[in-house]
Amino acid sequence: MNTMKREVGLLIYFVTLALTKTIVDPDVRILSEYIGNLMNRTLGVETIQNEVNHLHFQREFINGSKVADMLSETISKSVRSHIDAVRKLRKMVEDHLSEVNARWTACCQYDESDVKPDKNYKAKVDLNEVCGIVAPNAPGDLEPLSNAVLDVMRENRVNVPEIKWQYVATVQGYMAIYPAHKTPSCAFIDPRYRPWFIETASSVRKNVLILLDISGSMNKKYNSVPLINISLEAVSIILETLNPDDKLGVIAFNNRPHRPTGCFEKNMALATETNLSNLKAEFLQHLIPTGESVYAVGFENAFQLLELSIAKSNNSHAEDWKIILITDGRPKETNRITDVYSVIKEGNRRIGNRASIYVYGLGRNANMSILQAIASQSFSRTSATSSPPPQGFAYHVEEQSFLPNYISSLNEYYVRTSDDITPTFSVPYSDGGGLGLIFTVGLPILRPDNALYAVTAVDISVADFFQNSLFFDSNGASYFFIIDGTGRVMSHPLLPQPADHSDVPNFVQIDQLERHNGFDEIMNSMTSGGRGQKGLKIKKTLPIGYAVQEVDVEVTYFWRPIAAAVNFSLCFVLETNRFNVTLNPQDATFPGKPRTSFRYHRLDLGSNEDTCRHFYKKSTKSQSLVLFAPRSFVSPFRYVPEQETTSTVTSYFNMFEQVMKATSTSQVTDILRSHQSTADLFVDGVVSDVMWTSLVDRLWVNNTDDHIAQRFIATRTGVDRLYPGTTIDGEFDATQRIWYELAVANPDSCVTSPPYQDASGLGNVVSMSQAIKAPTTDDKSTIPTVLGVMGVDFSLDFLFAKVREIYPNCWSNRENGWSCMLVDNRGNIILHKDYTNKGVLEVKHIAGNKQLIGVLKNRKMAAQRRCLDLGEKVYRVSYEIKPNSYLNETYSGNVDICTQYFMAPVPHTNIFFVARPEPGYCVDSGCPPSNQTCLNNAAGSSSDGAWDCPCTQPIEIDNCANAIDLDDGVVPCYPDRQKISSNDDDCIPEHLNSCFNRNCKQAVNGSACTAMVGCSWCERDRSSTLLTTPYCSISEECYNGEEGQRLPGYEASAVCPVSVNTIDTVHLVLILVFGCIVLIILLSAIICLVKRRQRRNKEKEMSIDEEGQSTTSPFGPLSSPSSDGVESPTSLKNKGNLSPRKHSRAPQVIISVVDKDGSEILKKPVVLVQGGVTYGAPAPGVSATDLQRAKKRANSTPLIGRAFRKGNDGLKISPTLRLNCTNFNY
Questions:
Q1: 9 in the Ramachandran plot: left (φ > 0), alpha (ψ -120 to 50) or beta?
Q2: What is the pTM of this model?
Q3: Is the bond preceding residue 136 a cis peptide, omega within 30 degrees?
Q4: Angle between helices 796-806 and 28-42 (to 10 degrees)
Q5: Lower CB density within 10 Å: C or N end of the chain?
Q6: pLDDT, tens only, 734-781
Q7: SS3 for 606?
Q8: Which residues contact 21 (CB under 8 A, 6 or more apart)?
């Protein structure tokens, strides 16, 4: 009640103050003060900041050199652990070559019905088994691997939990994979053609030039297949053997040469996936055989291309150069073949005789003598002045299925001694199974004679390698990056995280991201394996979503090499004179302050006694729930794949619950020591953050504002509190949300992020957030240290209603009304009349208002920005409104009323108040979503200088060099921020009561209705017909103003099944008691009926005996007429082959008369007639006197007649008999 009175009083004060000014010059300080009071009242920002100011923080200078050493050693240790795993596997196979071997289940036939998905592999896997793959052309006498392979693979997984797939592939074509999983097909998988196998077996970078004969004779068929098709299949197999670092050239020839366009036209290009795909689609698939086969033309062009490529090669002598001729072996120069030999001899001489030639002759008519001479280059082995060219081979391909075996000879397996073996690291590539950017490390396995037996390898996630470094935090004062020996970037904060790669990677060179004077020296040292440090002045980019914010800072670069086995280098960039601010758990106690208990966000693994439903989420309102982001853990990527259990949650609870109740530093120390194994899971600062953030519960739990959707507080260590609490995806990191980033970039302001439509049913909301800072004590640092960010989601309609209450002229439907809106400093329209009472929200931008953006541009109050989104490979065009920009066109005398804008910054926020007259004909075109392609040009401006809406423009990609061409002067923007994902087991808990009673029905108009979170103004029925009387309803029953329409996401989620654990205890007891009562009643009724039937049967027996009648069956034998000539009715049915039933007496029929309550008042034997047949033995009939007597006994009660037959099987009702009552009146 006091809170309500205070709010009403403040609102009256604000409205009174606002009315003292006209709309042409509103006082924006009033809105600023209202927002500040709103944040303090709903969140308690000021209270929490005051409490934090009394805590004792430690400050120390960050030692950049020490941090760089630590990060380098951490990554090197991870590298060594993976290499050790490969070495153990290699040694085991070599030691067990002579053992009895066994073969495992084929991967394509593996039964995955009983295996579960594993997040470490992002697939269904069996961690206890290995599966196998056999190449289609493997020999019949295949040598399987030893069973000991499985034992070592299991051991590797235990020792290196983040290790990915493990392989052992033999030269015969058999491969074992761990863990076992199902593959789509058994066919067309040959491990010997995998790039990691070839690269490990040869360890020499290849340069391959394919010379393809497309003369007319290649149209001829061999075994019903055109030779050109066989040659293209051979090319396809060759391409599969190449690594992205290998170089490739292709020349097709007949009478003249034919080269592909693009990368392969004038040079040999990298064999990247993109280049190979383009080569197939744009060149190989369009080749048409024609003309004559002139070998001299083909080889002359081939050596010209090799000469150019070798001249550009940095290490040509250590590389392998091959020409591969694919032909039908029928050259035009058959009678003057020495001319061809001369071309080859001279061409190879020009490149130092480095090229070997492999020839594949297709079909029966190939002239193999000529092809063998070309492959051996025997004509070039007579010169004494230079070394002869390397030996090649010629193959006569008479069977298409033999192609893979022939082509495998290209991959020469170099014989090396065990002492000469070093691990081979593949070029990083994007994993097709969703593991992100990975690379493969391999080792060859040798026989005792040093001949290659197999290759063993493991896949390594790049994110796993850099796991600790990716989440290293120094209060936003630093960042780091990692490059390889060529300068390619492996990890950088301006690039997507390695785990987020899902497309073919186009690598970026480090000098494209670090564009600072003096950086060349640093890059040269890093690529050569050096170490050092250097200070520079740079422009630092801050992460605030798609927009760009740069600040000038002085930094020091500290670079270190990573383990020698992998050619990587790390650089740590630290701002000058920055401090590391920490809070020990012992200093985070609040003696005398009320504390809540600790509760983890996994409601599915804990008690459900106080759970409720907050829209579509299972929640609790008794306290906030705590979530730990991956960065909260010492080993983030070991935590993320782990499936949390009740035991895990209990261990968290036991430690944090005790710590939060501690009242002294010694108690905290003792508690952490007793829970050492749990405490060691978390990075420094997590325990302290859990403790000080717990103060929010006493501010939030009893605050029942109906315009609040959710409250939250997140810290730099990844601790996140939510109220009402609910379960969130374990990989969610609040520090990557835009509301957090905006608050960090503006630590002294209350910031508002663009509105959005909440996926869990909260409706259209807007987030406001504010930073909580460590107290400043002296002049050591003027830059505030952000400890965390508090935030709240408001109903958009509530905020808009409050703005109208403060500035009444913002009611545009009033006389002299104005159109009012709130705009952030990026030009996004935060609040607009078109947002209210809407189901589908489309955020507008001021660039869609050509009058306003034109005025701001001319006054130089707004600037257009471009940044590089390297994750999406686009330029992003955005806008920035300069701070303190003030605009008042209302006094200008402008005749165009639609351009009479007022704009002023709202103090202590990131928003501007904008207003203009609303005559009814001013139109704002708005802007489509920000990911639209720029309509005009890359700069986002048309020829007349008008600005586009926020848009994107594709970046030029140099596929030939596998690099991105970037515009100078355009800074990179941070990649797309993390999106919230739902749990796989999310469902709608319809059986739970709502957490809060939404008084929607009390609202009398649309504005008051939609200002309450979860309420919808219902205007249409289920057929979209307008209602006569609109009303306010909960959103779940009338979303977007239409009855019966569900909230977004409802259809995609299943309704939670109701289990015993989810039913309220009181309800459960009532159900059990009611069930017992019903069961007792049913049993009693059955017992009564049985006894009553028994009693009646006994009475009937006694009555018959009293009348002197036989107690035997009244129906006698059923198969023949009775002794008195009366046929049984059942005998008629026996004509249908019913089995006869034998009885000793003729049947008698008895009439029983009962009253309505079932009491028998008359029982007499009678004669019945049915279908002209008489039933029953002769006996006295029922006289009229008997009936009168019976009627008197029944007190004129209507009689009910029942006919019985009595036999050996007891007294039964005969529903088929009817009484012939013609001999008496009834």
A1: alpha
A2: 0.73
A3: no
A4: 140
A5: N
A6: 888 889 988 988 899 999 988 877 666 566 788 999 999 998 766 555
A7: coil
A8: 27
